[in-house]
Amino acid sequence: MTRFEDPFNAGQPADELEDELRQVLIRREADITEAAQPRTDGELPVTPIPGWVHRVTELPGGRTGTLLAASVVALLMLSTTLAVRGLTHDDPPVGAPNSPAASTSLPTPSTTPSPTPSPTPSATRTSLAAACPLPAKWLTALEAGVVAVDQPLNRPLAAGPDGSFLMEQSNAFTDRPASSITHRELALFDRDGHGTTIWLAAEPQHDLVGVSPDSALSAGWAVFALARTQNLAAYGVAAWDRAAGRLSTVRLLSPAEQEADLVIAFDPIVAGDTAYWIEQKRNDTAYQTLVSQQLPYGQRHTRPVADVGRLVAVGTGVGLLLGTGPDHFPILATTLAAGPGLTVPAEVLEWAGGRWFSSDGTSLRWQTDQAIVSWRPGQSTVSRTGLARPLNGPFVGPFADIFTGSPQEGTMMDTRNGTLLRLPAGLRFVLVAGGDLITVTGDRQDTVHRVPLTALPATRC
């Protein structure tokens, strides 16, 4: 289930952070009693927005997805290894025609191999110390790609296949209470940097959105979940018609359903013109309902599923990521299963257990302890890039994030050649949209950059 958390997280020792998080979660579970109060008259509980509201912004003189919960970061720092060695290719290149299997039924979740034991702190420091600084021409390209924004806090959340991306913007500050937030919106930015407000919070201190990092956008639609801070779970699904410039309510849980503890389990997705989401009782993954609806007001279809931790769109189909790790965190250990419109061949299922699944719209990529695995629907097998040691973070295009335990220190691995890259303080690689890298910099993530990957060729120290 998506955790809707504060985007700011100061670095702490892993053991202290884990203890603190566990206590916070226990207290919040006991204290949360206020239910969300959305409207039930078919209208979104937001300020009305005229079609295609474009903001006038000035280019700064000179910036974030689904959010990773702080608890996930703590678990990752405790359970996975940071050291990364050279890459080896042990399978032929992908692209040859293959014969897909016929079965689309849900397989029994396979057991994901246990992570390799984490290296000692000294071994970790040694491997990260070998990271290269970013090349000067990369820094020059990033500086030239500033995206105009009009709010102090900017968080790119999701990338689209056409180069567009969704970004949450607000006037939140780390040194002020949540009650000081007077503006929160979700904006759709096109390849040229033009932003369109598609959702505006009626109560910025409490209204939130949940966005799938890789499956929220299609050519015609943007979909996202509606949530409130009191619930830590979503109560609705909304869709933005990109052609008409209109926001629609796709699903809104009634007060009775919310009183019965029904929730939208995590971020909805869109494949083509159909939205998909999971409904379940809070914290009960054994009995879930996969819901699909042609946008905006088509007939709704349901099917029972279980243990689904995330949905991902690939091609015209939907992959179900079955949670098999602690607390069903899908980024820690998941198994790919076939959903609507997707056929997963038997040979692919043999490699279907892993972490950090991501989609670029046409293919899937994920990590195991031994390899980076990729697969495109229609192929009968996977392509693997061998790893001497497992990685520690999500993919951002050709880069893999490696958590160092401090938000001020960033290290990425360039999967094109295995080089470790040390990012300047405050810089984060966030998304790849339409072949362009989206980055953020600043303590409040206040500067957003966009640069073509072609301007960032693979390099070595």
Report what the structure shows:
By secondary structure, the protein is mainly beta. It has a single domain (14-455), classed as Methylamine Dehydrogenase, Chain H (7 Propeller), CATH 2.130.10. 12% of the residues lie in helices and 35% in strands. An 8-stranded antiparallel beta sheet has the order 2-24-23-22-21-20-19-18, with no helix packed on it. The chain has a 5-stranded antiparallel beta sheet with strand order 1-8-7-6-5, with no helix packed on it. It has a 5-stranded mixed beta sheet with strand order 3-28-27-26-25, with no helix packed on it. Helix 1 (14-31) packs antiparallel against helix 2. The longest helix has 18 residues, at 14-31. The model is unreliable at 1-126 and 325-330 (pLDDT under 50).
Features:
eight-stranded antiparallel beta sheet; globular; 12% helix; 461 residues; mainly beta; five-stranded antiparallel beta sheet; Methylamine Dehydrogenase, Chain H; 31 strands
Secondary structure layout:
Blueprint: H1 14-31, E1 53-54, H2 70-79, E2 87-89, H3 121-129, E3 132-133, H4 136-144, E4 146-147, E5 153-159, E6 165-170, E7 184-189, E8 195-200, E9 207-210, E10 221-228, E11 234-241, E12 246-252, H5 255-259, E13 262-264, E14 269-271, E15 274-281, E16 288-294, E17 300-305, E18 308-314, E19 317-323, E20 334-338, H6 346-349, E21 353-359, E22 364-367, E23 371-375, E24 383-387, E25 395-396, E26 399-402, E27 410-414, E28 419-423, E29 428-433, E30 436-441, E31 447-452
Parallel strand pairs: 3-28
Antiparallel strand pairs: 1-8, 2-24, 4-31, 5-6, 6-7, 7-8, 9-10, 10-11, 11-12, 13-15, 14-15, 15-16, 16-17, 18-19, 19-20, 20-21, 21-22, 22-23, 23-24, 25-26, 26-27, 27-28, 29-30, 30-31
Helix pairs in contact: 1-2
